[in-house]
Specification:
CATH class of the largest domain: Alpha Beta
CATH superfamily of the largest domain: Doublecortin domain
Helix content: 10-25%
CATH topology of the largest domain: Ubiquitin-like (UB roll)
Largest sheet: 5 strands, mixed
Strand order of the largest sheet: 2-1-5-3-4
Number of domains: 2
Structural class: alpha+beta
Order of helices and strands: EEHEEEEEHEEHEEEHE
Radius of gyration: 20 Å
């Protein structure tokens, strides 16, 4: 067959997808090509799983103006989008979710979210900020999940934290497919029984009623030069 008879496949597109109405979600990268996604519905299904959307994703919007994206061909390489179900597009500053001064926002359960300024987006910068706030942090993986990066858990040093409250906080943040977080494990498979056993800067795995799955969480999900941009804690 001559080269003229070969149909060139469209080039792959790299896009970033945010969760509708979530100002703290850092976005998830996707590589979109015909070999991986034959239809727009297949892409939306993958987005639903990867961003851990509470409901099935049915619509994509542009992040600044909320323009609706109807098909794979509308996606532009290097662009960002917001994933939603059947609810309306929520206009937020998705692209600059971490570029604000340090601030705290309390919700009904007493959780405080911290957004760090760009100059602190290094491990050293975050540790300095935490030390000044009288806090320590650890990072938590989801049991059996090798697609989602660990989420940071920031705890106040001054206030003792009851174990059942900590598990409730982990349940809200982890959003495990198996339901509520019942146990917490170290990466070597040993179980943590109390908040006092947590070590500053260490990594843990949140587990439901199922057994702990010993997997290479750290090796696969933690880039050596990365630092979490959004942290939260209970005080």
């Amino acid at each position: 067959m001559s080269s003229r008879g070969l149909a060139l496949a469209p080039p792959a597109k790299n896009v970033v997808v945010y969760r509708n109405g979530d100002p703290f979600f850092p976005g998830r990268k996707f590589v979109v090509n015909q070999r991986r996604f034959l239809t727009f519905e297949a892409f939306l299904t993958e987005v639903t799983k990867s961003i851990r959307a509470p409901l099935a994703v049915r619509n994509l919007y542009t992040p600044r103006h909320g323009h609706h994206v109807a098909e794979l061909g509308d996606l532009q390489d290097g662009c960002q989008y917001v994933a939603a179900g059947f609810e309306k597009f929520k206009r937020l500053d998705y692209l600059n979710h971490g570029r604000k001064e340090l601030r705290r926002t309390r919700n009904s359960k007493g959780l405080q979210w911290l957004a760090f300024p760009p100059q602190s987006f290094t491990a050293a910068g975050i540790l300095c900020s935490l030390h000044a706030l009288g806090c320590f942090y650890c990072s938590v993986f989801r049991n059996g999940d090798l697609l989602s990066p660990p989420f940071p858990l920031l705890l106040s040093k001054s206030t003792p934290l009851q174990w059942d409250i900590l598990l409730a906080v982990l349940t809200e943040k982890a959003n495990l497919c198996s339901g509520a977080v019942k146990k917490l494990f170290r990466l070597d498979g040993t179980q943590v029984a109390a908040g006092e056993e947590l070590v500053n800067g260490d990594y843990y795995v949140a587990v439901g009623n199922e057994e702990y799955k010993k997997l290479p969480y750290f090796e696969l999900l933690v880039p050596q030069d990365s630092a979490s941009r959004t942290l939260w804690y209970v005080d």
